[in-house]
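Lecture 7 notes: from sequence to structure.
We start with the chain below.
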Amino acid sequence: MVLTFKARIEKIEHQTPKAKVFELKIPDNVNFTYETGQFAMLSIDDFLGPDGSPIKRPYSIASSPLQNGHLEFCISWAHEGGFSDRIHNCEEGDFVNVEGPFGQFLLKPITDDITFIAAGSGIAPLMAMIRTLFIQNTTKNVWLFFGFRYPEDFIYEKELTELAQKRKNFHLTTSISTADAVEWSGERGRINLIFPKYIQNANLRDFYLCGPIPMIQASIKVLLDMGADKSKIYKEEW
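Predicted structure tokens for the same chain:
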């Protein structure tokens, strides 16, 4: 059921120079339920469109439904005077309008090992899925291939690297796409050029992809060439 309510910003965390994580408290009198991978429409009362109504923008919910009581959104600053600019100027204690949940990019019942492929802020719904899997103590192998431009653009770096250290069945590979001479110990190049080096038996995996349309299209082509089952490739693109 779609609900609309006001949520208080409980915590704002600077993840990268361009991305912040906003933790919103679900009011005690609101029974908001959602599935892993869904998104919500966010708006702010004083950020209005030409018709005088609040401008709404969709953002994936990065928290797991098993993390009760709050919603987490990872929002990159677009520097275009739009909603992302406005919410980046919010402070803890401010209120945001939440409408949702929406979307069919959902974590399916687990039968095979799982591979996540993300670029940039496309990590958000995949974080919800990864968190859900490990809260449930999955015994399946979980891979994350995460691409971003510069080393400082590594969203959720601390949480993901710690998870990879603590969970033997979580395998993390990151890659930067810039050609600049920067110090970096991970992979270099577009993420669709990286994961083929690591994936074996693509036909025996579930794949979840999230990011810009060109990355998604290029990655799906590579996966199909590797023998992945098209019916087991799930995607969210923009």
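Points to note: Residues 163 and 170 are 7 Å apart (CA to CA). Helices lie at 83-88, 123-135, 157-166, 191-194, 213-225.
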